[in-house]
Amino acid sequence: MNVLQKSLMLIALIASLSVFAEKTAYVTDNLSTAVRSGATNEYRILFYVPAGSAITVLDDEPENGFIKVRDNKGREGWTLNRFITETKGARIQLEETRQELSAALLTIENLKQQHAKEIAKLQEQLATANVIVKKSATFQNEISELQTQNATLEQQNKRMADRFQQEVFFAGAIVVAAGCLIGVIIGRVSRKKQSGWS
């Protein structure tokens, strides 16, 4: 194997190693898991990861059944692959469900308060509308009464105008009759005087 082939193999190996990205996994719910300083049971235990805890898998290629992990405190070590799963444990799922339920209850409470405010606002608007309707009915009654009074006054004015015209007619007739009577009287008096002079 020449140098070029060795270089190509080394580049391919590095590329394959760099392709792996860290991923989140979980310790099984059954028991706490020991994290060791190396990839066998011969290495000392560095710390324990509680059952159901989230960890970061740093190398998913098992070595002697061990994989390299990091806990949420930033500590690294090796632990048995069979105690690690990609599925969240029941404890984490329960806690997430509790948080979601708490958020949902808070949202419901906020919606209830908002709903109560909207109802109070609508009731206030309804009360205002009722007052306006009552005032409108009162105004309508007043308008109706005024219209009745106006019609009555118009009739009275018409009667008075008719009576005034009649009175003017009679007064004119009386004046004419009086004028005629005075004319007749004056005519007779004039004739008597003329006959008396002759």
TrEMBL record:
It is found in: Membrane. Its main location: membrane. It holds the Pfam family SH3_3. This is SH3 domain protein. Keywords: Coiled coil, Membrane, Signal, Transmembrane, Transmembrane helix. The chain crosses the membrane at residues 168-189. It is a single-pass membrane protein. It comes from Pleionea mediterranea. Residues 1-21 form the signal peptide. InterPro entries: SH3-like_bac-type (IPR003646), SH3_dom_pro (IPR016476). The keyword tRNA-binding does not apply. One of its GO terms (cellular component) is membrane.
